[in-house]
Automatic annotation (TrEMBL):
Organism encoding this protein: Nymphaea colorata (pocket water lily)
Protein name: Helicase ATP-binding domain-containing protein
Domain of life, source organism: Eukaryota
Stored InterPro entries: P-loop_NTPase, RNA-helicase_DEAD-box_CS
Amino acid sequence: CLIIDEADRILDPNFEEDMRKILSILPK
């Protein structure tokens, strides 16, 4: 279920924007 849920989130454009924001905040 978790994998399917994550896949649905990844397919969501809003999720992609949120991920970019999170990745930009996290130290590389």
